[in-house]
Structures are given as structure tokens and as C-alpha cells.
Write a structure and sequence with these properties.
Blueprint lengths: L3 H11 L8 E2 L9 E2 L8 H7 L27 H21 L9 E6 L2 H11 L4 E2 L4 E8 L8 E10 L3 E3 L5 E5 L2 E12 L2 E10 L1
Parallel strand pairs: 3-10
Antiparallel strand pairs: 1-10, 2-8, 4-7, 5-6, 6-9, 7-8, 9-10
């Protein structure tokens, strides 16, 4: 089976990043699937349902647009879009490792397609007072995309590796691991004043 890197190169060469070949992230993309220690794999969503009687999910706190977005990631240029995409996934790692909700939502557009799952994955961890031991999301490469998009969007391809890092409970003990996933996110960005926002995320595997 070819690697994501070779599939990525082939897709760019053939212009194959068309909507018909893209799998919507919200319909089964790379999300949290916890593998509990010494037990068979179960999803974090299923684990949340199993403990819902004993755990009350925290209420997400509204967070303003990040003030630490670098100037390079605010620039209204192709390079600025790439820098912002890298910042976005870096902030996603912060959400994973702290179990803090509300870090991703301020960078999304109001109509972002396929985006809620990112905040939802973190919320699943937070509802059980869990977090990841280390950054799970490794961004290998970000490039301009040839994917179809609507007027006003800037689209980039993000070659990523969701690593099988440990999930820690509130006691610091291992509660499972994330399921490893590799693929390409096709990320649509839009300008909102002088900042970028994520307007859509699709998964190509």
C-alpha cells in the first residue's frame, strides 16, 4: 500500500483532489479513538456514554480570537494561509494536551463544514477529565491545494500524522491511546477582517 506521502504527491501531480474523491471529515475522519490499556479498542465516544452517569461534561467557555497568532499567520497571502493552518493544528495540540475546550472554536467561521468534530474530540476527553500525554498531531507538510472551492476561500493541503499517544486520566495514569491515522486534510480558509478563519475541513486518506 502506498504511503500518504506518495499518495499526496500523486494527487497533486494528477490534480486529483476533487470533491468526488474527498471524504468529509465529519463523516468518519481522523478523530479520537481511545484504546484502553489491556482491553480491546473502544471509541472515546462510547467510553463517554459509559461514564456519563458519573461525569458531568464541563460547559465550554467562549474564548476570543487568539492574540498570539503570529503576524506571518495573519498576512493576507498564500504564505499567510499556510502559516495560519500550521498555527491552527498547533493550537489543536494544545487543546489535546490540556483537555481544554474552546481553543479551536474562535478560529472557525460560523459556517465551517467538518470543523465541529475537532472541538468535539477535545470535549470527549474533557468530559472525562482526560488529556493526551504529548502532542498527537504532527503536521508534515502544508501546501496550496488544487481542490475545488467557493469564491473567497483559500485552500491548503495538510499532510498529517495523528500519532498513537497516551491518554492520561486526572490521576496521571494511562487511560488508553489514540488510534494512529495518517492522511491529508483539505482545509478551506476565509478572511474575516484582518485574520484567517477555518471555513471547512475534508479528509483525504
Amino acid at each position: 500500500m502506498s504511503s500518504p506521502n506518495s499518495r499526496y504527491a500523486a494527487a497533486l501531480a494528477a490534480g486529483a483532489l476533487a470533491s468526488a474523491t474527498v471524504l468529509a471529515a465529519c463523516s468518519g475522519g481522523a478523530g479520537i479513538t481511545a484504546t484502553p490499556t489491556a482491553t480491546k479498542p473502544v471509541s472515546a465516544a462510547a467510553s463517554t456514554r459509559a461514564t456519563s452517569t458519573a461525569t458531568t461534561p464541563p460547559t465550554p467557555t467562549a474564548t476570543p480570537y487568539p492574540t498570539d497568532v503570529p503576524a506571518a499567520a495573519r498576512a493576507d497571502t498564500g504564505a499567510g494561509a499556510i502559516a495560519f493552518a500550521k498555527f491552527f493544528f498547533g493550537r489543536l495540540n494544545t487543546a489535546y494536551t490540556t483537555g481544554q475546550t474552546g481553543l479551536i472554536r474562535p478560529m472557525l467561521s460560523t459556517k465551517c463544514r467538518g470543523c465541529e468534530r475537532f472541538e468535539g474530540d477535545v470535549a470527549k476527553l474533557a468530559s472525562q477529565a482526560q488529556r493526551t500525554a504529548t502532542d498527537p498531531m504532527l503536521v508534515k507538510l502544508v501546501n496550496p491545494s488544487n481542490a475545488p472551492h467557493r469564491v473567497g476561500q483559500t485552500v491548503v493541503d495538510v499532510l498529517f500524522h495523528l500519532r498513537p499517544v497516551r491518554i492520561l486520566g486526572s490521576d496521571g495514569k494511562a487511560a488508553g491511546t489514540l488510534t494512529e491515522v495518517q492522511g491529508i486534510y483539505v482545509v478551506a480558509l476565509v478572511r474575516d477582517g484582518d485574520v484567517w478563519r477555518v471555513d471547512g475541513v475534508d479528509l483525504l486518506q
